[in-house]
Structure formats: structure tokens, C-alpha cells
Amino acid sequence: MKPSIFILTVLILLLLLLPTAIPHDYSDALRKSVLFFEGQRSGRLPKQQRMTWRGNSALNDGKNLKTDLVGGYYDAGDNVKFHYPMAFTATMLAWSAIDFGGYMSQKDLRQNLVALKWATNYLLKTVSQLPNRIFVQVGEAQADHDCWERPEDMDTPRTAFALDAPNPASDLAGEIAAALAAASIAFKQSNPKYSKILLDKAVKTFQYADLHRGSYTNNPKVNQAVCPFYCSINGYKDELLWGAAWLRRATGKDFYLKYLVENRQAFGADFNFYEFGWDNKVGGVNVLVAKEIFQKNVTALTAYKETAEKMICAFFPQTAGPHMTYTPAGLLYKPGSSQLQNTAALSFLLLTYADYLSKSSQRLNCGNLKFQPDSLRRIAKRQVDYVLGDNPMKLSYMIGYGDKYPRQIHHRGASIPSVKAHPKAFGCVQGWNIFASPNPDPNILVGAVIGGPDVDDKFIGKRTNASHTEPTTYINAPFVGLFAYFKSNPNFS
């Protein structure tokens, strides 16, 4: 190893494993990370709405297909409802409640479930016409991105898109099945009737996914509507495993166990497993299924655990084999349009796996090296603290947390005066004048975790710089679980 590479490796290792210097209010971060979802709501807002600068929007969604598709979440700073990332968001909110709900106060858990239910109520609508039809998206992405309008003023087409059997939609349907199955576990205690509805629909949605195999973006009409924003680049097989894994956990049925065993290799659980996010579920599948080994010693699934450990070992620079990449200041980094989505999702897996190890009194085995669960937690905590301000920019990447955070974000609703402050509509062209303005956002999208810095820890905080300043629901959702854990363990170091 060259001296410079050796020194860099040692520095990164120290950054990851040494206690961070800045204390953080993880309780505040948790509350705000959930509050953010109220700013992303579509549809008719409830009386309990706390993000009060938002108003009702998109109340006729689904009309062109003679169905009700009102509700759900806008995925990011635009006004389109993409069902694929929305379903992943719901899965991660549910997983946060299931595995980290015990670290939340009753109030925090309740608010997490409120955010989850806003998503699952809508996802139930997207699969309400199964077994023959699944709804893909609402809004025309290109037309929407050609305008800078707050959701309450939208005059761009709200076209709803659907796929009818036998058109394939395994990735979309597989993710929706995973979301509904995971949510059925999250609601099992507090709302058993709703939990059963979710699980029944999850089973039917998975049947569509498995029966009509293929990617939803292979359909030319859908491809034109969804791409290049949420194309299924990684294919559909990982979502079939992901859906089956959550249904196995929700039902305990051997059918899903057999499905996971028989399809693991053919569906690529050993391929591209260092990734996890709205498109690639492989890393998440392996970690999720590994719990069956820790809890029940289901040896038929051992290969999933072995692959999960290969991924977890890659977080440690001193291990043999491939490694995760970090910025000079220790942020987990993967190339992509929105950096912190990778950081959030992968850190969630790291913390989840640490919990599995602790509860079974085991260590992580990486060849000749062994790591205690707290070693995994230190890396996850380093990511969380970096996001909350312990970084070279001394900036919180969560809007509304701390004293110093970006005042311009790539978000239509936040950047344009609210309907309460300015009832008259802002037009498409007028909105672009606001987009280019140097003025700070008039509305604070509290709790939004934005895209974040580049590979050199540098951040350009302008709303024109979408990759750095745009928030997404699927960045925030994994952070809910992360903040919950460190809220209950604030002195962990």
C-alpha cells in the first residue's frame, strides 16, 4: 500500500471510530425528520396539519382514469407522484417503526405511523383494481419540470398512468407489496384491522408482481412518463426478493421462505449487493433476511446472511476485499444525483445489523478481523452527526435543525410564498423568477434532509443546484430509524 493511501485509510478509520466532537439533539432531529413528510403531502390536508404554510392540492388526481388517486406524497421538490419511490419511502418508514419504534416515545412513534399511513392509504388506491390494473404515477414529469409552481397552484397536466395485465410491473408491484407487508407489521398492535387490510393487499400485489414478470419501465408509454427520473435501472428481480422477504416476515409462511431460497441466485442476491436505495434493494434484502438466521436459525437462508456480512465488512477500510467510499471528512459516499440518499439507506442497514448482532450476542466476522456491534454503530453515528452539522462546512443538512442550515433549497413549495401569505396564484414563468432569485426561502421545510455535499465535502447551497439542495422522502425515511436509536442512546460514543 502506498504511504499516501495508507495515511488516508488511517485518517478515515479514525474519523469513523472516534467520538464526534459536537453534541446533537437527536430527539429534535427525530421529531423534525417526521414532520418533514407533512410538507410533502398531496391532496386534502387534515385539521391536524402542522406544516401550516401548505394547502390542499391535486384534488382531482386520477380523474382521467375515472378513479380516486388523491393523496400520497410528492417525492421531492417537484409536484409529481412517482409511486415507485413513494412505496420505498413507505417501506423504510415501516421498517423504522418495526425495528426502532422501541427507541421512540409513544408520541414520536404515533407521528411516524401517521406519516406511514398517509403513504399506505394512497398505495392501497394504487392497487385497488388488482388483479388487472396497477397505477404507476400521477402527473406528467416533463411538463411539471418545465414549471416552477407551488402544488396549490398547479395547472400542468395531472395525467394518471396505469398498467393493465399482462403488462409486467414486478419492480413497482414488488416494492408496493413490500411496503404494505412491512406496514402491516408496523400497525399490527395499534390498528389490527388496518394491518389485515394491508397484508391482504400485499399478498395480491405480490401475486401480480410474480405472475407478470418484468420491469414497469419496459412499457413504452410508462417509460416516457417515468424516465429519466425513476427508471428501474437495476431491473425487477431484487423487488421480487424484497417483496417476498417482507411477506415472509409479515406472515411467517413457508411459501415465501421457499421462494427466497429457490430464487436467491437467479434473482441476483449475490450481485451488486453493496447498494441499497429506491432502485436497488439487494443490500436491504440480504440484511432483512439475515434476521431469520439470528432469530430462528433458518439455515436454508444462510447464504443471505453471508452476503449481508460481506457488505457490512466493506464499511471497514482495514478489511480485505471491496470497500465503501468515504469523503475526506468521513461521510459515506456513493456517486449519484442525491448523495445523502445513499448515506441514509446504507447507514440504516449498518445500524440494523448491529442490532441483530447485539440481540444474538454475536460479532461481525470479516476474515481474520472481528468487530463488536458498537463498531458498526460508531460508523452510523458518524454519518448522522455529519448530517446534523459535524462536517467541514459546519452546516446542518437538515433544514430547520440547529442555527446554521441552507436557506435556499430546490423545492417549489418552500421557495414560493404560501397561499396564506399570497393567495393569488404564481404562474409557471413567474415561478422561474423566484427560482433564480437570491432571496432565502419564505417557507421553512422543517426536517427536510437535502442532497448534501460532494465527494470533497464541499456544498453549494443554492436552489439552482438540485443535487445538493433538493430533499426527498426516501432520504428522510431511513433517517427516522437512525435518529430514534441515537435519541435513546445520546451518550453513545
From TrEMBL:
Keywords: Carbohydrate metabolism, Cell wall biogenesis/degradation, Cellulose degradation, Glycosidase, Hydrolase, Polysaccharide degradation, Signal
A Pfam family hit: Glyco_hydro_9
Keyword Manganese: no
Superkingdom of this protein's organism: Eukaryota
EC number(s) from the headed UniProt entry: 3.2.1.4
Domain Glycoside hydrolase family stretches: 26-482
Active site (UniProt): 410
Full protein name: Endoglucanase
